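Working notes for the structural subgroup meeting. M.R. asked for a predicted model of this chain before we commit to crystallization trials. I am recording the input and output together here so anyone reviewing the notebook later can reproduce the run.

Input as submitted:
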Amino acid sequence: MVHMNIKARAIPFLKMNGLGNDFVIFDSRQSGFSPSEKFVRDISNRKTGIGCDQIMVLYPPKSAGADVFMDIFNCDGGQVGACGNATRCVASLLMEELGRDNCVVETVKGMLKTWRDFNRMIAVDFGEPHTKWSQIPMAREVDTLHAPVASGGLFAPCCVNVGNPHAVFFVPNVDEVALEKVGPVLEHDPLFPERCNIEIAQIIAPDRIRMRVWERGTGITRACGTGALATLIAAVRRDLTIRRATVVLDGGELVIKWRKEDNHVILIGPYSYVFSGEIAETFGNEATAA
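Returned structure, recorded in token form:
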């Protein structure tokens, strides 16, 4: 047997979660490490990798006023523009590093202002939501308040973009919906050229909503920050709730505000540190250095 002494570079990582929506975070501000799609898929695998819903890679900021640039990858290797729960996790790390109670996280979709709120919660300002069919985007002009999409007893969702596309279906009882069956069908509906995140929502009170989510490229997750934002926006557009509500997800609760004064939507919620470690850069055999 031939013994080969090959030493691969060890890449540090952090595992964090927001309400059970879990992430692996790589800090590439110094290393220049950049993962391939296969590396992302392999790391995300819960049996043979670290296991997570999404992967975050941090780089030096690209724009004045930002503290960090964050790339976001779903577990299928595809890149996305926004993730509310991950933004809170990354913001908590930056605030500790910078010794401040606020920071700005830059993504491909723009700048996200974040700050410490009550009870160790982190708030994220996602700016103005987009509700026009071309902004979501959708394949043709439709009424986004009651879009012509249906499957498995779900129909006529309210569609919105808060950094990524969402379709929110209101139902009497979210626990009676076979989300694992209808989720992948609706995600790939031809009306959504970039696929879509699917939320099913149940109005409990004017300030309380129960929600479950199917995330595009990932599947069912215990929480989705942008999904919670989209759900509150959809509920207000349908005159079902007030503009500040608690969204109850499988993993816990998020507070969502849609401010009248500037039309911005605010996400407030907790974050958790899980563990840290190192993984070989050659894991999956397709990692590259920028």
